[in-house]
Write a structure and sequence with these properties.
By secondary structure, this protein is an alpha/beta fold. It contains 15 helices and 15 strands. Strand 12 and strand 13 form a beta hairpin.
Length: 444
Amino acid sequence: MYVSLYTKKFNIHEDVTVLYNTITSSIDVFDADVLSEEDTLRAPGNEELLAYLTDRGYVYSSEQDERDLIHQLYTGYNQFKREHRPLIFYIVLTYRCDLACDYCFQNSAKALDGSIDTSHLPALFNAMDEICERFPDTRSRPVVALFGGEPLLRQHVGLVEEIFREVAERGWVNGPIISNGVSLDAHLPTFERYRPSGIQVTIDGPEEVHNQRRHTASYAGTFSSIVENVNSAIEAGIKMGIRTNLDDRNIHCLPELVDLAERHGWIDSQSVELSLAPVHERACGSLQEGERHDAIFERVLATISQLPRLKRWSLDGWSSVHHFDRLLHEGKAFIPRFDHCEAAVGKSFHLDGYGYIYSCIEACGMPALAAGRYVPELEFFPLYDAMRHRSVLNIEGCAHCGYSLVCGGGCALQAIVDKRDILTPSCANTDETIRRYVEFQYEK
């Protein structure tokens, strides 16, 4: 028998063994003595156990059988991407922001003054139309999202309304908005008429802590206005995402964060998604950052043990954990991650006021990492194809890694920044993070 490269085994305490497979999304708990020997998986010793391990995808008759399955899944995944993943157009309205958060990964871009106004819209939508023509097999409606800088500045009310009106008239989807939430109230009349799919804001803890981290350039606090605007948006029927960015300076505030969410009814609201994520620099985080993220993750788990209501928050800032969370709590198998993110899918386009197009949201404002441009005419640079053709099947370092289908080869932008080679993996501490999370869930 051939033991799948993607079958992983570890012990919890001395008497329990966990087995999981990242192709089939199987996860099982065995008495440790059942799988105590290293060769037990290759020669289980009884037909019933062999049949079970085979059915769950832990072992195959041959390595070729596994390769055939991966090829089948990859073919299906590419067909799904081609036909069902929508084209997502992020309009980067401006790189300016009315806040001065010290940890913002976009701080270096805030000096860029190229903003979009109504005169840019014909060229923007013409570019979107031309891009749509390049994807004739896509069945889903195009999605238009807003990004910045801060897209919902008060001076953008008319511009945002015009964009949303145009999207609605085309029969497209008014998609998500990432905002600091400070001026959200000024845009609510537009959003009540042309509903976005959701708005994400950040609240980094109780008022004092939040205001120390997310303040204006004059150090004025933003907590009260954001909370008020979030509640007004919820009352208007708009779906809200509330994210908390964690580091050593606010991780201790998680109990107060839960209290805040309970007081405002967010924790039980179907209109609110709550999430936690570690603070990271530009790109998805270096290996050194990963060590800090692991330490934050440990403290999050420790707090959940003491405060079960914190389980309401998604841990999507730790992507491998997020997949296992859906498997363990919702019974949803995770699709093997042949690529890392939307940038590698090749159907997300971030269009800014300078006429550049970026595949990766983290690259916006860095022309050297642009995927193309739409002014004076639509053109894609070599990086666009390099991004969308990057997968664990053509990254040499992923070929013999059993965790590659969980991390998707890691962040392409980080690989470029760190190693100057997009076809190298950008590895995180995936194995230890998964082990720790599964141990935590078992103990609970």
